[in-house]
Amino acid sequence: MNKVLGQSFLESITYEQSQDVEITTQLLQSLPISQLVGKGLAINHLALQNVRTGLAGKLYVELGPDAAFTHELIRGEVRNGDLVLVRPSSGKKDGISCEGVVTKSSDKMITIAIDEAQENNALSLYNATTLCLLKTTNTITYKRMQSTLRKLCEIEGTPNNEVMQYLLNEAKFIPRKDKLDTKFFDANLNSSQKDAIDFSLQNKISIIHGPPGTGKTHTLVELIRQLCDQGHRVLVCGPSNISVDTILERLAKVLPGQNLLRIGHPARLLEKNLAHSLEVLSKSGDAGAIVRDISKEIDDTIAKVKKLKSYKDRKASWNEVKILRKELRAREQKVVTDLILSARVIVSTLHGSSARELVNCYSHTDHLFDTLIIDEVSQSLEPQCWIPLISHYKSNMQKLILAGDNKQLPPTIKTENNDAVKRALTTTLFDRLVKVYGDSFRNLLDTQYRMNTMIMAFSSQEMYGGKLKAADAVANWTLADLPAADINENTEAPLLWYDTQAGDCPERDEDFTDAGALSSKLNENEAYLALHHVFNLINSNISQESIGIIAPYNAQVSLLKKLVHAQYPLVEISTVDGFQGREKDVIILSLVRSNDNFEVGFLADERRLNVAMTRPKRQLCVIGNMETLERSKVKFLERWVRWSEDNSEIRYPDLSEVL
Ligand SMILES: Nc1ncnc2c1ncn2[C@@H]1O[C@H](COP(=O)(O)OP(=O)(O)OP(=O)(O)O)[C@@H](O)[C@H]1O
């Protein structure tokens, strides 16, 4: 089975890589910057603000909005960890440029880490009038998956590891559901959280299914404490830096610092987590002191060599440098290995789990980890999940705990034209295991601590079999309960629709001259309605920071930012993907699609819509054409409209009053 699975994923990943490279190259070459921005693949009108030295042979290039054009960055799909190219906005595409990785981004500044070798290129960007940043393909991540899958294929016979046997469907899984007398550290856990923890403690493999706001991270933190208490060494992984940094931040509050180690380039970590970074720790404190001393000795010797006159003396000193360098490497490796071996919990991305520093430790020990936890498994490609399993095959991992929600956004892939590849890659490990073993090891967290019951209800009914409950503290809260908020029709309703089916909010393509399929969509009058509702909320004493606006199209997000931020710069506006894992007191959702053909595009993706409608705590305000949705032939949308007609306050806006 390992050969069949490995080979089939290898083919799919190789195909996906070719598509990714082809699509990105084609888009970058053929489309003007304005359209790349519309697709979220580029940021335009940047000014180079600073080039500074960072850690580990990296330079940080800081880019802000070019004040001659704009005051805020439209970041689109550009996220931390993305590989990007910075070049002048106009002029030759193959002119001066530098390539790096996004390490920080906000509406005011984007920072990329580049290799020192590109310093001159970076500095010459100061001369360009205005700059743009383009998202390119990161081939390193593909290579790592491919080499993992090859190793999976190479395992002869049935792997001797029981966890792997379950994953490969080569052992029968009989779940144990004994009542344990676990002494929970956190007294507030609810019964579904306690059950999920007990299940994971007594089974080799488990899934913690955490719908929005149900305390998945909360549960994982308690579980990790329990595992540490039982003497386990735990490897915690996730698909992105932010996914694992969120857990690390919470773990750091309850586990003593020296037990936690974060693998990964410090430039990509949350600042709060730097105290746990392997790289930072290995260069600081007592451990780093010896290394620093040797480095200084090397520098001093080199300085001396330059002054020596005789060849013989110089030769002798260079030999000394060589010996010192060898010692430095050995010391560095020892410091790193000691830190790893003394940590109880190691946190890294799925890709980072194959880091050389970790794998090198197997020359000192046969067993590094007992348990592997993969968070956000539903956003991870299955080949990514195999990276820690294969890299730490020697550890003979005793337990695998997966956490995620297969009803929220799946991993994003580029392949469009090959259904087999699409199916193979968007079926996550979570989905595949549920298909093989049914619900036998899936533990649903059933109480959410975010949303008013009315906001939760449709999502619960459609996506979670009606099993979700709202915790008492949030079940009835509305905007009107916020301190200082006025009590009126704009703050009391948990569910509100501005139904635009009267026809005065037509959608349009981002650019009339654009080739259809590549075009993003926008809806100007919906944007004005969103602004109108923001105005109503602010006038009811709701703070700008409490308000979020979501639109499924980048072009609409850009338009909304221009319009709303001119008056209310602190209102957060993003696509659905940008809001995954986040929450706001009120979310205004601009659906954009409004046409006589009842075409709904992205809206047909119920997982994307599920994420959008479960971000608000106290009010969901939808702006959209109910008729377009109802007649789209997409059952989920049809049911949502019918349900909303019965359960929301519906307004039929008079555009003449708004515009
Ligand atoms: N048992 C509990 N009692 C009280 N509050 C809780 C409990 N469990 C979780 N919470 C609260 O619920 C909120 C959501 O928890 P957490 O961030 O762990 O959820 P999540 O499922 O990881 O979130 P997301 O939906 O963003 O993935 C947090 O404010 C957390 O403190």
UniProtKB/TrEMBL annotation:
Pfam families: AAA_11, AAA_12, SMUBP-2_HCS1_1B. Residues 202-439 form the AAA+ ATPase domain. Its EC number is 3.6.4.12. It is an enzyme of class 3 (hydrolase). GO terms for cellular component: cytoplasm; DNA helicase A complex; nuclear replisome. It comes from the Eukaryota. It is found in: Cytoplasm; Nucleus. Keywords: ATP-binding, Cytoplasm, Helicase, Hydrolase, Nucleotide-binding, Nucleus. PANTHER family: DNA-BINDING PROTEIN SMUBP-2, DNA2/NAM7 HELICASE FAMILY MEMBER. This is DNA helicase. The lineage of its organism: Eukaryota, Fungi, Dikarya, Ascomycota, Saccharomycotina.
